[in-house]
Amino acid sequence: MTQVTVGVSLKTYFGHEQARTWFAEVAQRAATHPAVTSGEVRLFVIPTYLQIPAALDTFSATPVVVGAQDVSEYEPGAYTGEVTAAELAELGVAVAEIGHAERRRLFGETDEVTARKAATALAHGITPVLCIGETSRTDAVDAATATVAQLAADLTGAPSGPVIVAYEPVWAIGAPEPAPVEHIATVTRALRAAVEADPARTGSVVIYGGSAGPGLLTRLGDDVDGLFLGRFAHDPSALDAVLDEAAALAAARGEVRA
């Protein structure tokens, strides 16, 4: 696959008007970025639930995909406070962030809960952005073994469909620097091999998150299919820099496959 994927999760850092301003600036940049408009780079943006309609409206004339930061494990019914995959899909949400380390740590979400959410999302045509990562810093080979096992657990019972595997070592989230390149490469290669070996996951990609920012994608090269950004993308010019790196990687992949 020559396409490179770049995603941004805004968590809850932005208020509504700040988010709308950010959407407008990113939409303008995406609409004029050759690699985004050509499809060589896929860009998805994940705001808060309340910001989703504004994001869908702002990005409607661009190729930017809008996602949700979570999804209910339940179908529509008597589940007060939940936001269902069915309603998100009806709005036009295309991806959903599932299993993030903060959801696991703060709200006690287990692999079983994550698997049910992934299954429900896929059943409604929403691609899970499935967050996978070891909790403490360890040897890269051990981390690869642990994350491949976690991936299998988080997709237990899920219907066929592609997923975006976001490798985010928990110890690197919010850290001053991302995980070392060699560590990331060892784990992402193993995750990529796992999804490529599963015929139910055709079209899946493996991206890296965890203090990811400008300069990292160039160093990782072909060992990842893209990046999942957090606070470093709050500055649209930093996001632009990552999109440029993604475009260069996509072009290099195209030359290799030509």
Automatic annotation (TrEMBL):
Presence of keyword Isomerase: yes
GO MF assignments: isomerase activity
Reaction catalysed by this enzyme: D-glyceraldehyde 3-phosphate = dihydroxyacetone phosphate
Main location: cytoplasm
Signal sequence range: none
Pathway info: Carbohydrate biosynthesis; gluconeogenesis; Carbohydrate degradation; glycolysis; D-glyceraldehyde 3-phosphate from glycerone phosphate: step 1/1
Compartments, as annotated in UniProt: Cytoplasm
Alphabetized InterPro entries for the sequence: Aldolase_TIM, TIM_sf, Triosephosphate_isomerase
UniProt superkingdom: Bacteria
EC numbers on record: 5.3.1.1
Assigned keywords, A-Z: Cytoplasm, Gluconeogenesis, Glycolysis, Isomerase
Pfam families: TIM
Subunit annotation: Homodimer.
Protein family (similarity comment): Belongs to the triosephosphate isomerase family.
Name the record gives this protein: Triosephosphate isomerase
